[in-house]
Amino acid sequence: MLSQIDLSKSLPRDQYKWEKKELSLRLAALQRQLIVDGIPVVIVLEGWDGVGKGSLINSLIYNLDARSYRVIGKDLTGVEDFLILRKYWKNMPSPGNITLFDRSWNSKAIDEFILGEKADLHKLNRHLKSVKEFEKQIIDSGVCLIKVFFHMDSLSIEARFEEWLAEKERKHYVSKLDLKRHEHYDAYFSLYDRIIKQDYVSGNQWHLIPALDFNYAVIQFGEVLEKRLQVAINLKRNKPILSKSLSGKQNSFSGQTSLLSEMDLNHSLSKEDYKLALKERQRNLLLLEAKIRELGIPVVLLFEGWDAAGKGGAIKRLIKKLDPRGYQVIPVAAPNAVENLYHYLWRFWIKMPHEGQIKIFDRSWYGRLMVERVEGFCSDLEWQRAFREINQLESYLVNSGVHVLKFWIQIDKEEQLRRFEARKMDPEKQWKITDEDWRNRDKWDDYEIAVNDMLSLCNQTQASWNLIEGNCKYYARVKVLDEILKHFEKLLNV
Description:
Layout: H1 13-37, E1 41-47, H2 53-61, E2 69-72, H3 86-90, E3 98-102, H4 107-115, H5 121-140, E4 144-151, H6 154-165, H7 176-183, H8 185-202, E5 206-210, H9 214-238, H10 271-295, E6 299-305, H11 311-319, E7 327-331, H12 346-349, E8 358-362, H13 371-374, H14 380-399, E9 403-410, H15 413-425, H16 435-442, H17 444-457, E10 465-469, H18 473-492
Parallel strand pairs: 1-3, 1-4, 2-3, 4-5, 6-8, 6-9, 7-8, 9-10
Helix pairs in contact: 1-9, 2-9, 5-14, 10-18, 11-18
């Protein structure tokens, strides 16, 4: 497709100045409509080094309201995030705002494939698949996504580099990486062309703009934005409001109904045996935590379970002897006002571990498949779509080197009632029991159906559920530590 672009197109300066003035006014008006309608916009700018993306951006955003847009370039810290997509999740626009990304979520993977020591086609294809899933997720959540590719031929880029390098004021425009990429122009051309063709077939196409003539490129860029923004506004204003799910009797989505009922909750452990086991396992965990930090291995430990199942107690015993510099506990409650502005996964993406970190989630993204589903806080379409989205998230984490361990702590309804009553009678624990806990208990059967669906449909091999029998707290706490130790020992080959 790139070979079909007519690079000879140009625009006289007088015509450019007039068209740009009119176009800027129309874009400013559209921006005001985006703000009123609460439409988030992501603009991805890709293309060859030397096309002058910075100047192209600046020429169009000058008349826009700077409070409602931002431009995200390369990370000036020089530290590459091993989770490529995190940068883009972190910088998603809130409703009515525009984020322009200078270079796409494909750039790093393409550079690694072409410039790296070993061309790993499987890794590249896996990343491109994750990108398609990511794009679908943000579009499904209401983001207007616009992807633009600025094209030039190799000889013109080379001439532009020579011109800039000869001028003191513009010499810094050309980096060593720019020159290295240009040496492999044909390889980049072939790969970009393949990606553009595939995205065209999938319906989320790139807008291809000849960039040899700056004036022409600016106007074409602006017209693409104008057209796409107008379409997004029309769609938003004509789109029926997605009704929330009516909280009521739940039906199984997976067809599985017996996973929880098949668990044997009679396992127990004496207090004396518990104390001995706990001490030994906590000491071993401390040693393994140090190795995980030293080797830069990112870990996610995720805890779900019934109210009063003992998630907090299990986490407390897990971290008691650990070095607090190596882990962080993330308590998850209902999303706040800011978090509600974004895709439901956004608040989890920004808290994912960096290399050598252990992040412990006390509740998690599975809230969408439990409380949000049962209580009607999201639509049926949204929670049904979440099974696929969550599996994609966890696959991406695992494929990027994150070790994901998930725990469901199971208790029966009678044990939950005993714990609720005990908390109600204990002044030091009364804060743990709320009216919401009692309301959730009244819907036990509906939650059980939702949990069985979750355990069945989000149970991938590399991010499978560890089911913990929790009627005996001592047994549950030790089993959690045993599962973590077993995974860490296998991971570290000790």
